[in-house]
Amino acid sequence: MAAKDTIKSLLKFVSCRATDRAFGWRHRRRWRDENGLGGLYQRYFDEYLTRAPIAEAIAEVLRNADINLPRIIEFGCSGGNNLKLLHERLSTPFRYCGLDIQEAAIEFARRQFPEDTFYKCSDTELSILKPKLGHFDIFLAASVLYYLPQKETQAVLDFAAEIADYLVLSDYIERSDLDTGINDGLFLHPFGLMCQKAGFKIVVPAQFPWGPGNRHGLFVARAP
């Protein structure tokens, strides 16, 4: 613990972009290595009920927008844990497309949900995949963007605004309304400003439905 605290104290003297790139490279390599993860997507799939607030947020968007046969795309879908929840919680049929960097997770998701669509895709490959995707009502990103540096996260949000009407984002959002912060080696992105830059307007402000002590929150934004 002492060594970890020492590293964090030193990070304040390093630019956020420098540490973002280093930590981002580490996370990419980790998530691409299915053996290193030990089937973590399976654990997420089994614990899917912990994501209930995400399904509730999506259901609320669909009720308010009165969308018929909604199309939902998820960046960082893992093995389909959020999709499993959506199939149980949404009262309306929907179409779904899942994107994830890990091939084993995508193959697992395809076996669980053969009627839905999945692509192996990282953030750097979104523009390549774009012609196959079309337009969506909701772009979902849950517990994935904190693995990406801020510049790359901004590119994902820009992409989301191009292909979807709404953004449902769940992540570490303590810095949501800030443009600067202490560099502690975590990607605590200023999502409020980043969404504004992408063209999104936040329509459901940041909430922390998982209770005290849990740093995960969520918010909903709408594209122009």
The whole-angstrom Rg is 17 Å
- The helix fraction, in percent, is 40-55%
Shape: globular
Number of helices: 10
CATH superfamily: Vaccinia Virus protein VP39
Question: Major sheet: size, sense and barrel closure?
Answer: 7 strands, mixed
Task: List unreliable stretches of 5+ residues.
Answer: 176-187
Order of strands in the sheet with the most strands?
3-2-1-4-5-7-6
User: What is the SS-derived class?
Assistant: alpha/beta
Distance between the termini: 46 Å
SSE run = HHHHHEHEHEHEHEHEE
What does this structure look like?
The protein is built from ten helices and seven strands. Helix 5 crosses helix 6 and helix 9 crosses helix 10. About 5% of the residues have low confidence. The protein has one domain: Rossmann fold (3-Layer(aba) Sandwich). The protein is of the alpha/beta class.
How would you sum up this structure in a few lines?
The protein has helices at residues 2-11, 16-32, 34-37, 40-46, 52-65, 81-89, 103-112, 126-133, 150-163, 191-198, and strands at 71-75, 95-100, 117-120, 136-142, 164-172, 201-207, 216-222.
Considering the chains and any ligands shown, give keywords for the structure.
7 strands, seven-stranded mixed sheet, 10 helices, 224 residues, alpha/beta, Rossmann fold
Outline the fold blueprint.
Layout: H1 2-11, H2 16-32, H3 34-37, H4 40-46, H5 52-65, E1 71-75, H6 81-89, E2 95-100, H7 103-112, E3 117-120, H8 126-133, E4 136-142, H9 150-163, E5 164-172, H10 191-198, E6 201-207, E7 216-222
Parallel strand pairs: 1-2, 1-4, 2-3, 4-5
Antiparallel strand pairs: 5-7, 6-7
Helix pairs in contact: 5-6, 9-10
